[in-house]
Amino acid sequence: MKDIPEIKVIADKLFEDRNINQVLVATSDGSPIYGAERGKEGLGEELFIIPAAISSALAISHGFMQTTLDDKVFEYVVFQEDSIILASREGDTVLIITISLPKTSFEKRPPIDDLISRSREAVAKIDAIVKTLDIEDSLIEKLQRAIPEASAILLLSSAGIPLSDLLSSLDVDSAQLAAVSSALSLPTRILGKECHSVAVTGKNNLILLYALDADRILMVSLKPKQSVESYLTLISQIVSHRE
According to the CATH classification, is domain 5-135 in 3.30.450.30? Predict the structure, then answer.
């Protein structure tokens, strides 16, 4: 499973409802994308056995109780002894949340309609994030082929925070990286020219930074075989033609 900060933000928002115990995200064939349980993260993939079955059922058949919302049947509700499993699908992404049921008849039952609505909203956002990440994975593969001398190609947030744990293994001045990334995320002018990319020197390598948008910075670390201008032009061409 990937560590995807954007999905964690959505999961944390869902966990604000005290009835929700578990948030799982999988592809429509049941492959795990993200998992968290109240009070802990990093769930093992063995916990995705049931979600995999639900995801596959959502993709293939109507084997679970269906709930209609906005005239679309994407939600499935599975009632268990002490909980409800609610699954929502958008595109190839399935969001599965486990909701605790009251232990006594005196406790109020969680509002299922409201949870379904929140689940639908969340899965739509997550699907958009997953599709964006798929595009960026493809972009990184293209850059790896075009710049074989690159020792690392990864994405940073606009604050210079890596969206990958690879940065920790690189010889990089993190403070300098954060400052440059923050500058690139804004309309930056260098020598009177608007700039979306820049090169900085690491201790043993060259670091090229390119702003994909206001929130994400592409970083390429390499020992150069061409001029800096050649690399920045090549990156610009590949980025501008990404799907």
Answer: yes
Provide CB contacts within 8 A for 232, sequence distance 6+: 197, 199, 208, 210
Domain boundaries, the chain: 5-135, 147-240
pLDDT at 64: 44
Tell me whether domains 5-135 and 147-240 share a fold: yes
Among residues 86, 116, 83, 80, the alpha carbon closest in space to that of 102 is found at 83
- Cα separation, 31 vs 18, in Å, equals 27
CATH number assigned to the domain with residue range 147-240, chosen from the 4 options 1.10.275.10, 3.30.450.30, 1.10.3210.10, 2.30.30.40: 3.30.450.30
pLDDT along the chain (243 residues), means of 10: 76 89 81 80 58 56 45 58 79 84 70 80 86 74 88 73 52 64 62 65 76 76 86 86 57
- What pLDDT is recorded for position 179? 66
DSSP-based three-state secondary structure for 184: helix
Burial class (CB in 10 A: 0-12, 13-18, 19+), 80: exposed
Cβ atoms 25, 14 nearer than 8 A: no
pTM assigned to the model: 0.53
- The alpha carbon of residue 49 and the mean position of all alpha carbons in its chain are separated, in whole angstroms, by 22
